[in-house]
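> @MW can you paste both from yesterday?
MW: sure, first one:
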Amino acid sequence: MHEAAFSAYAKAGGAGICIQKTHISAEKWQRRSSRSAGMHFVRPAVLRIICNTAQAVNVRRETPMAATHLTVKGLVIRETPFHDADKLFDLLTENGILTVQARSVRKPGSKYAAVTQLFAYGEFCLRSSKDRYYLDSAVSLNLFYGIRTDLDALALASYLSELIRKTTSDQPQPQILRLCLLALHHLSEHDRAPEMIKAAFELRLLAELGLMPNLVCCPVCMRYDVEDPVFRIDEADVFCASCLYVHKLHDYPATASVLQAARHVLYAEPDRVFAFRMHGRSAAQFAGYAEKYLLYRLGGTFPALEIYKEMTAKT
């Protein structure tokens, strides 16, 4: 029998029992204790319970803590200097946002400096310890180099990452990661107008968050081909101009092309969200509607949005 078992029993109130350092069964210990003078009688059932408890404690102590490792594909959406040469960065994955500490990546010649920079997409091997993830290794998959050569694209990408940080939780949301990768791809390739990328991202993000507007038909006349559409932002609906008897502050009149583009963004397959083009007055109206609807639904302010507007206004 284990020494720890008898010590535990003695502390629990078994005073007066002569305890020897030996490893024998409960029955043998009972027979020996009954022949010893001055020793109290202890039931075998009690001794068995003590033995089982001691064995469980010893097994728990001898079992090492399993190291938690995780391999994920993710996008760096924020980076912060930490200590002398370390870095903290937020990693957008299919399972939500993870905060990772990368050690010594800010030193010259670090092999993980590129994959841990802002807007880098890669495969990361992480180690979890004390409620924090640490970087063990990483391989870059796409650095979106074209974004870094255009200040307007960089400012817009910063705004998109700010939106994600303020709206995305640690719950699995793989659609948001795919949406962000598509937006950064078009920004890097310069094959879509930045204003259209911004508007499409805003509307589709709200749809993925459960804030999709109802643009199927006019709720009054139930017509799909809405005549002279008016977006009622506070009600998340679209009306025919002739069906509105009272105009409200948050009414946003637009052309039929704007309604068609909004429907495409909301109802298209994930890979086809940005597969459209708009120009002129309709493009400006679509961008205005998407931004107004997002600000109304989310509230608050977005400093990166103000910076982006200032930069595009100068150009």
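MW: second:
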Amino acid sequence: MVTSFMLWREGVSRVVSIRYFTPAAPLRRYLSSYYWFESNDAIFSDLMRAELPQIRIVTCGKPTNSFINGHTRTPGPVHVQGPTTGSAKYSSVGPLHLFGVGVLPEGWSTLIGEPADRYADDVVDLSGVVGPSADTVFGDMLMARSDAERVAAADRFFLGLLAHAHATPRWFTALTDDWLTSSPNPDVDTLIEKSGMSARSVERLAKRIYGASPKMLSRKYRTLNAAVRLGNGEATGWADMAAHAYYDQPHFIREFKQFVGMTPSRFMIEAAPLMRLTIVRRTLLPEMHKLARYS
């Protein structure tokens, strides 16, 4: 399935073009979606909310990532960004074209196999993680002349990784994904109780697979849920959605700034159109994983 979107800025022609694609059926429990991104502006800069891990294959441009922990990286053209625990800035001078992939927690554990917290709020060259197959898919993307060829190249790459899958506690990813998405305010004690494990064991697994402690994950997805509700018009103010989940309005604003990168009021003015775009994408891609609805 292909879904196309274009974003516009007043007084300027095309800002970015994004086309979304569904991975091959065996990969859909591991990857949220593929996307082809183009910006032909002289300068591209965007503030990304906290998100799932991303693999990006850049065929034009040299982007720089700036993370909430102070790390600023300019990685090679094929790189993997770990899960983020706050907003991040993604920028490039000149045209920027890339093929991107959202990686779900089960996908990280199965296809990557490294501790996710080691890569949280950071980005590294993918070849250093999965080996020379990263160079192969880069060459395939450079040679690709159509969306179908790009998607086929990505499917070959990830199916190759899947053939050498790492052992993954699927019961834990299913439990944790449901915990994060079934409540606007995930309670850590509920996760621990349902897991049947000690708090320390749950934290260790969460950091390895999700890149953060259960407490941080709860804060992250509580706020991303609020951002989605603001963006799609389900809520018009903090009291509509956050009064039961935050101590007070200043607490809500602080959390929103950490995970979304701006205040809720600024978000409604500047970022809501992009959020509405991603929500439309989710309605057109109903098979998209529930965790990807937020990041």
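> thanks! The first helix runs from residue 105 to 112.
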